[in-house]
């Protein structure tokens, strides 16, 4: 389970095959709402590696909706 504002690193830890969604076999994800994560073979485990600041909630939701409607997007995450 992830929460709003989480930045996570994930992959299919049980497989050595490339993932269709992430040809490099791994991905970073930013969540704009809570979510129970699943993949074709069940629940997936993620490593939470950071959090977005609450002041950036509106921007996070804007980016999240754009990705949901249009697909993947490159973003830059900086440490504060």
Features:
single chain, 80 residues, alpha+beta, two-stranded antiparallel ribbon, 1 helix, globular
Stretches where pLDDT is under 50 for at least 5 consecutive residues are none
- Rg over CA atoms, rounded to whole Å, is 13 Å
Mean pLDDT: 84
Helix content: 10-25%
How much beta, percentage-wise? 15-25%
What's the overall geometry?
Answer: globular
Distance between the termini: 25 Å
| Strand/helix succession | EEEEEH
Tally of contiguous helical segments: 1
Structural class: alpha+beta
Number of separate domains: 1
As laid out across the biggest beta sheet, the strand order is: 2-1-5
Annotation, overall tally of beta strands: 5
> How many strands, which pairing sense, and closed or not: the largest β-sheet?
3 strands, antiparallel
Describe this entry's structure for a reader.
The chain has one domain (6-70). The strands form two sheets. A three-stranded antiparallel β-sheet has the order 2-1-5, with no helix packed on it. Strands 3-4 form a two-stranded antiparallel sheet. Helix content is 18%, strand content 24%. It has one helix spanning 57-70, and strands at residues 6-10, 27-30, 38-39, 42-43, 46-51. The model has no long low-confidence stretch (mean pLDDT 84). The radius of gyration is 13 Å and the shape is globular. The longest helix has 14 residues, at 57-70. By secondary structure, the protein is of the alpha+beta class. A hairpin with a 2-residue loop joins strand 3 (38-39) and strand 4. The protein contains one helix and five strands; from the N terminus they run E-E-E-E-E-H.
């Amino acid at each position: 389970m992830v929460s709003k504002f989480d930045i996570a690193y994930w992959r299919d830890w049980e497989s050595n095959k490339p993932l269709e969604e992430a040809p490099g076999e791994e991905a970073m994800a930013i969540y704009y709402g809570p979510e129970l994560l699943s993949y074709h073979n069940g629940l997936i485990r993620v490593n939470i590696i950071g959090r977005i600041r609450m002041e950036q909630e509106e921007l996070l939701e804007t980016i999240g909706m754009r990705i949901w409607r249009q697909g993947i997007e490159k973003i830059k995450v900086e440490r504060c």
